[in-house]
Amino acid sequence: MTGTTFIITFTTRPEAASDFRAMLDGVKRELPTVAGCRGVSIFRASDDPAVFTLVEQWDSEQAHKKHIETLSASGGWDAIAACLLEPPSGRYASQL
């Protein structure tokens, strides 16, 4: 079954890392219930506790983009952005 993977890395402000980590607990529970999401794995950098990477599995890029539109419209993205030191780095990828 085909699909797409979206990999995104967030660098939080050091003082916001624990709040962001708490938000990710919700992401781990809730994101897999979003239409088109097949699952998410969340990682924290071993050498920097303010850096988090999500590896998300989606049915399609369109399903992911629809989720981002919904997240932005609901104000959910604003809560994430408030914790960040810099804009996140994300891209679609395919497994080799």
Report a brief summary of the structure:
35% of the residues lie in helices and 30% in strands. It is of the alpha+beta class and 96 residues long. Strand 2 (37-44) and strand 3 (51-58) form a beta hairpin.
Query: Largest beta sheet: what is the strand line-up?
Result: 2-3-1-4
Question: Structural class, from helix and strand content?
Answer: alpha+beta
Give the total of beta strands: 4
Helix count? 3
Name the shape in a single word. globular
Strand content: 25-35%
Helix content: 25-40%
Largest sheet: 4 strands, antiparallel
Task: Indicate the radius of gyration in whole angstroms.
Answer: 13 Å
Summarize the helix and strand pattern as letters.
EHEEHHE
| Low-pLDDT sequence parts | none
Give the N-to-C terminal Cα separation. Answer: 15 Å
Determine the mean pLDDT.
Answer: 94
InterPro entries: ABM_dom, Dimeric_a/b-barrel
Domain ABM: 4-96
Protein name: Antibiotic biosynthesis monooxygenase
Keywords: Monooxygenase, Oxidoreductase
